[in-house]
Design goal:
Helix content is 41%, strand content 21%. By secondary structure, it is α/β, with parallel strands linked by helices. Bound molecules: calcium ion. The site of calcium ion (CA) has 5 residues, from loops.
């Protein structure tokens, strides 16, 4: 599947120019000028890279970048900030909220595409995947559908994130604290016990029809997905 790029930019001429050039490079390109829509679009389209303008009418690029980095699902998507400003202080600010790279307008297309390629190489394989499979459990990361064998499995968004995290590294036992950080995010106060509640719900959803339970509880350590 082609890598996709979301352009968040309010200057139509730049959007047209970027879309034309990036499509020519083989990328699937989406764009929006609405800062308030970015999280929804990212959730729906799961872009490989985001090009984020600094100055937008509804929310600044810095705010959007910070919001993306606080969402466990979106944290690994590379972000390149695009800006008309060139001050060193802005660059530091952009990078400090989690942008991966920074380009000052006007920028050259060959340089931008080189940086996009460099970022795509850095993304872990698991974050690039559109589907995760463990035994008969399948997660479609784009449509957010989970199936087990031929059956559709229904679960809440927290259980989905939890299952995704476990399925990205099968066999690895994660302590509750690590699951909290990965699934709920940093700076959010949730008790470690909450993890147990959601693991219970996840098990119930996955094993309803009497299928084998692949969620392994490791006493005093944590959880993994594994064949027992
Ligand atoms: Ca702008």
């Amino acid at each position: 599947m082609a890598n996709s790029i979301l352009i968040v930019e309010d200057e139509p001429a730049i959007v047209t120019m970027l879309t034309y050039n990036l499509e020519k490079e083989g990328y699937e390109v989406f764009s929006t000028d609405r800062g308030s829509k970015v999280l929804d679009i990212v959730a729906e389209k799961n872009p490989s890279v985001i090009l984020l303008d600094w100055m937008l009418p509804e929310a600044s690029g810095v705010e959007i970048c910070r919001m993306l980095r606080n969402k466990p699902d979106f944290r690994n998507i590379p972000v390149i900030m695009l800006t008309a400003r060139g001050e060193e202080e802005d660059k530091v600010k952009g990078l400090s909220v989690g942008a991966d790279d920074y380009m000052t307008k006007p920028f050259s297309i060959p340089e931008l595409t080189a940086r996009i390629k460099a970022l795509l190489r850095r993304v872990p394989e698991s974050a690039k995947k559109k589907e995760l499979v463990f035994e008969d459990i399948k997660m479609d990361l784009v449509s957010k559908k989970v199936t087990r064998g031929d059956e559709a499995i229904h679960m809440g968004p927290t259980e989905f994130r939890l299952l995704r995290f476990l399925m990205e590294q099968p066999g690895v036992v994660f302590p509750r604290e690590e699951l909290l950080k990965a699934v709920w995010g940093e700076n959010i106060y949730v008790e470690a016990r909450t993890v147990d509640v959601h693991v219970r719900r996840l098990r119930k959803a996955l094993n309803e029809s009497g299928k084998p339970d692949y969620i392994r509880t490791v006493r005093a350590s944590g959880y993994s997905i594994d064949k027992k």
